[in-house]
Amino acid sequence: MKDTQLCGVKIPRGTTVRAHPWAINKSKHLWGEDAKEFNPERWMVGEKKANGGADNLAFLTFSHGPHGCIGKGKSLEEERSEVLYVG
Predict the structure, then answer these.
(1) Residue 79's CB: how many other CB atoms inside 10 A?
(2) Which of 74, 84, 24 is nearest to 52 (CA)?
(3) 56, 69 in Cβ contact below 8 A?
(4) pLDDT per position as a tens digit, 29-79
């Protein structure tokens, strides 16, 4: 619609911008040094969650908003239960 900037990068009007969930989900900037490791504590609730300071919008596997996956909560809960049961 119009020229803009994103993180200091000039983006001309008409440019297609895509979000790549894999890259965002593995970002050390968002998730910390162990970003590429499976760490279910990242999705625990409360103020002390170990997510490297990222919020739910930084985890794009299930998307968000009206087009987000309806199975997100169930999937994450199953992973938490499996880790708590085994661990």
Answers:
(1) 13
(2) 24
(3) no
(4) 878 888 888 776 766 655 555 554 456 666 777 777 788 888 887 887 776
Using an 8 Å Cβ cutoff, are 54 and 47 in contact?
no
Q: Which helix (DSSP H) or strand (DSSP E) does residue 31 occupy?
A: helix 28-31
Question: Which conformational region is residue 60 in: left (phi greater than 0), alpha (psi within -120 to 50 degrees), or beta?
Answer: alpha
User: Cα(first)–Cα(last) distance of the chain, in Å?
Assistant: 51
Contact 49, 14 (CB under 8 A): no
Domain assignments of the chain as residue spans, ordered by start = 20-86
